[in-house]
Amino acid sequence: MAHLVRDKAKLIARVRRMRGQLDAVERALNDEAECSEILRQVSSCRGAMNGLMFELLEGQLRYHVAGDVTDPASDEAAALEEVIDIVRAYLK
Hints:
- By secondary structure, the chain is mainly alpha-helical.
- It has four helices and no strands.
Protein backbone atom coordinates (compact mmCIF):
# COMPACT_ATOMS: atom_id res chain seq x y z
CA MET A 1 0.00 0.00 0.00
CA ALA A 2 2.96 2.33 0.44
CA HIS A 3 3.18 2.86 -3.31
CA LEU A 4 -0.46 4.03 -3.34
CA VAL A 5 0.20 6.53 -0.57
CA ARG A 6 3.34 7.74 -2.33
CA ASP A 7 1.54 8.14 -5.67
CA LYS A 8 -1.81 9.24 -4.23
CA ALA A 9 -1.88 12.75 -5.73
CA LYS A 10 -0.92 11.44 -9.16
CA LEU A 11 -3.52 8.66 -9.05
CA ILE A 12 -6.28 11.01 -7.89
CA ALA A 13 -5.40 13.47 -10.67
CA ARG A 14 -5.70 10.61 -13.15
CA VAL A 15 -9.12 9.63 -11.82
CA ARG A 16 -10.28 13.25 -12.04
CA ARG A 17 -9.17 13.46 -15.67
CA MET A 18 -11.07 10.24 -16.37
CA ARG A 19 -14.15 11.71 -14.70
CA GLY A 20 -13.83 14.70 -17.01
CA GLN A 21 -13.63 12.40 -20.00
CA LEU A 22 -16.77 10.55 -18.89
CA ASP A 23 -18.56 13.85 -18.38
CA ALA A 24 -17.62 14.76 -21.95
CA VAL A 25 -19.17 11.50 -23.18
CA GLU A 26 -22.36 12.30 -21.29
CA ARG A 27 -22.45 15.82 -22.76
CA ALA A 28 -21.90 14.44 -26.25
CA LEU A 29 -24.78 12.00 -25.80
CA ASN A 30 -27.05 14.74 -24.44
CA ASP A 31 -26.08 17.02 -27.33
CA GLU A 32 -26.72 14.19 -29.82
CA ALA A 33 -23.18 14.39 -31.18
CA GLU A 34 -22.03 12.25 -34.08
CA CYS A 35 -21.58 8.58 -33.26
CA SER A 36 -17.95 8.64 -34.39
CA GLU A 37 -17.16 11.49 -31.97
CA ILE A 38 -18.74 9.60 -29.07
CA LEU A 39 -16.87 6.42 -30.01
CA ARG A 40 -13.57 8.33 -29.98
CA GLN A 41 -14.36 9.74 -26.55
CA VAL A 42 -15.30 6.31 -25.21
CA SER A 43 -12.08 4.92 -26.65
CA SER A 44 -10.14 7.62 -24.82
CA CYS A 45 -11.91 6.72 -21.58
CA ARG A 46 -11.02 3.08 -22.07
CA GLY A 47 -7.37 3.98 -22.70
CA ALA A 48 -7.30 6.12 -19.56
CA MET A 49 -8.83 3.32 -17.50
CA ASN A 50 -6.33 0.81 -18.89
CA GLY A 51 -3.50 3.21 -18.04
CA LEU A 52 -4.69 3.45 -14.44
CA MET A 53 -5.16 -0.32 -14.29
CA PHE A 54 -1.59 -0.84 -15.50
CA GLU A 55 -0.16 1.59 -12.97
CA LEU A 56 -1.97 -0.14 -10.11
CA LEU A 57 -1.07 -3.63 -11.34
CA GLU A 58 2.57 -2.68 -11.77
CA GLY A 59 2.69 -1.42 -8.18
CA GLN A 60 0.98 -4.57 -6.95
CA LEU A 61 3.48 -6.76 -8.76
CA ARG A 62 6.56 -4.76 -7.74
CA TYR A 63 5.74 -4.08 -4.11
CA HIS A 64 3.46 -6.90 -2.99
CA VAL A 65 4.09 -9.90 -5.22
CA ALA A 66 7.82 -9.55 -5.85
CA GLY A 67 8.73 -7.28 -2.95
CA ASP A 68 11.61 -9.50 -1.87
CA VAL A 69 13.36 -9.39 -5.26
CA THR A 70 16.37 -7.23 -4.49
CA ASP A 71 18.94 -8.22 -7.12
CA PRO A 72 18.01 -6.54 -10.42
CA ALA A 73 20.19 -9.07 -12.28
CA SER A 74 18.39 -12.10 -10.82
CA ASP A 75 16.13 -14.48 -12.70
CA GLU A 76 13.24 -13.36 -10.49
CA ALA A 77 13.77 -9.71 -11.47
CA ALA A 78 13.89 -10.66 -15.15
CA ALA A 79 10.67 -12.67 -14.79
CA LEU A 80 9.00 -9.73 -13.04
CA GLU A 81 9.97 -7.34 -15.83
CA GLU A 82 8.73 -9.83 -18.41
CA VAL A 83 5.31 -10.07 -16.75
CA ILE A 84 5.10 -6.28 -16.42
CA ASP A 85 5.95 -5.88 -20.11
CA ILE A 86 3.26 -8.41 -21.06
CA VAL A 87 0.63 -6.64 -18.94
CA ARG A 88 1.67 -3.27 -20.40
CA ALA A 89 1.31 -4.60 -23.96
CA TYR A 90 -2.03 -6.20 -23.17
CA LEU A 91 -3.51 -3.03 -21.71
CA LYS A 92 -2.40 -0.77 -24.56
